[in-house]
Amino acid sequence: MYTAFYGLSEKPFSLTPNPAFLYLSDSHREALAHLVYGLEQGEGFIVLSGEVGTGKTTLCRSLLERIEPDSEVAILFNPSNNDIELLQSISEEFGLPAERRSRRQLVSALNGFLLDCHGRERRVILIVDEAQNLSSATLEQIRLLSNLETASSKLIQIILLGQPELEAKLDSDSLRQLRQRVTVRWSLRPFSVQDTGAYVQHRLAVAAGAAREIFSPAALREVHRLTGGIPRLINVLCDRALLVGYADSNHRIGMKRVRQAAREVPDASRRIGIWGIRKVGWAAAASVGFLVVAGVAWLQWGSGAGLDLMTRVHLVSGSAPELAAVSAARADADRASGTEVTVIVELPPLEAELPSAREDWTDARESDAAAEPGADSGEARLEPPNQQSPAAAVADATRATLALHRLNRSDSTISSRGEALDEIRSRGLGVLEVFDTSFDALRDLNYPALIELSSGDTEGEVRVVALVGIEGGEAALVGVGNRTPVRISLDVVEEYWDGLAWVIWNPYLDIPDVISEGARGDEVLWLQQALSRLGYLDAHVPGVFDASTLRGVARFQGQHAVEPDGVAGPRTQMLIYADLEEFAPPQLDDRDAG
């Protein structure tokens, strides 16, 4: 269906085991070595366990390819829990008559077969899959088969494959005799993030006959996160992601399409969160404007992926004009129940010159357009910036953040995201961690944000940049290079972004971070007045968070792409501040300008 579109000769992520697509992680390679050793020893049980889809059966098939051709092998994929039926299934797999026979007759015929194979120097191997479903009595019957032996050797080797529940059964006291006969016992682990990326690239290369980098590095990490490194889930999710890309006529699969595909994969969709928000830090002190969220971004300029990214960016140059003045605010005081609510925002001292990343970017866009009216925004017009260290990048991002808030430049040494957030909090600003999000969601919130961009490989190293603007299909980032904003296509940024953002905002009022039904006091009165002014609240009990107030909050949330739970949490408060004219937080775009 989509194979020709991606230049593939066959589907790379079929669930049908195919030795040509075999990829062995370190864990699988070590497990295989132990299995081969166990078979070479020629005695005892071999137990291989692992979660559903970790590759137990595939690994066992690989094992069978490595043993001598003069072997008799029986595989029971769905063994019966009845001992007679189990013996019948084993007999049928070895080509022995099994119908209408007693246990004694079945065991006797099997013993004769094993002795015949031993006389012809043929090894006999029995593989029992899904062994965790067998009762203790049935497992004991399998143990008894190992009693079929000569004076010098066992006549049959038995391999048990199962989920972790098999391990628990074997550890029970009732199966201690079976446990004592196990010579090799190994538990398969899921893939690491590096193995997940290598596994996907390996299967694509086999299907294409050459290396094919269809999935972006960020998409591969998202595949790992959503599947937990389980090979079977990886196959299902990647197959669906390729189908999504095919439907969109897109040859490159980014994180967004992986998430879109995951919604149709039950075990992966459970890991998807929509605007999961966790409070990181708060401050009661006020300051004008709104914080930029500096993004942690590691763009590996020297690598192939980094150079590819830089062919699609614009480096913004030019002077940094002063940040436009933000007027101090005082709310119109509405009287209710004799209570007066006054909003006061004090301006901190300003430096003589404050760079404005947002205005720099806007000015540069206009000058670019004037100089090259027909230029294609997808092509680079300037040389890539000098590579910055991660420490320099996060320091620049922090400076841009403080500048947007008209706060003095910090004298502190900042070299990590943690230090940057600590410095931001110390200036009276709040930090809101947002995960599993998208640029559409950040655009709805319309606050500058810290985002994490990763390297062009699967190692997961990151660097800090500040997302200071979104206009059209481009993002403005500070911290990428030379302390100046860089314009990059949102589609390109999304390939390197893992969906994490740290929204740094100004809690203008000294009110609780969460206001919910049943609350009373000045904070509720302010919330009610704000909702009334914005047209979301009618009749209510002043100063009491009643059912009417809850409905008003929910209506406001519904109009602002927030889950309408009726709770005025951080995100809701941020959006209220943005809608009230007396507050002027920095925004990603100037949607209300003019």
Summarize the structure.
This protein is α/β, with parallel strands linked by helices and 594 residues long. It is 39% helix and 14% strand.
Helices and strands in order:
Blueprint: H1 26-41, E1 45-49, H2 56-66, E2 71-76, H3 83-93, H4 103-119, E3 123-128, H5 136-145, E4 157-162, H6 164-170, H7 176-180, E5 182-187, H8 193-208, H9 217-227, H10 231-247, H11 255-262, H12 266-269, E6 276-281, E7 293-297, H13 304-310, E8 313-315, H14 357-371, H15 390-404, H16 417-426, E9 430-435, H17 439-445, E10 449-454, E11 462-471, E12 474-478, E13 486-489, H18 490-496, E14 497-505, H19 522-533, H20 547-559, H21 570-579
Parallel strand pairs: 1-4, 1-5, 2-3, 3-4, 7-10
Antiparallel strand pairs: 6-9, 7-11, 8-13, 9-14, 10-11, 10-14, 11-12, 12-13
Low-confidence segments: 273-386
Round the Cα radius of gyration to an integer and report it: 32 Å
Q: For the record, what CATH class of the largest domain applies? A: Alpha Beta
Q: State the oligomer.
A: single chain
Biggest sheet layout: 9 strands, mixed
Count of alpha/pi helices: 21
Helix content: 25-40%
**What general outline do the C-alpha atoms trace?**
elongated
The helix-and-strand class reads alpha/beta
Predict the CATH topology of the largest domain.
Answer: Cathepsin B, Chain A
> How far do the termini sit from each other?
49 Å
Mean pLDDT: 76
Strand-residue fraction?
5-15%
Count the E strands: 14
**Overall number of domains:** 3
| Gross CATH architecture of the largest domain | Alpha-Beta Complex
The CATH superfamily of the largest domain turns out to be Cysteine proteinases
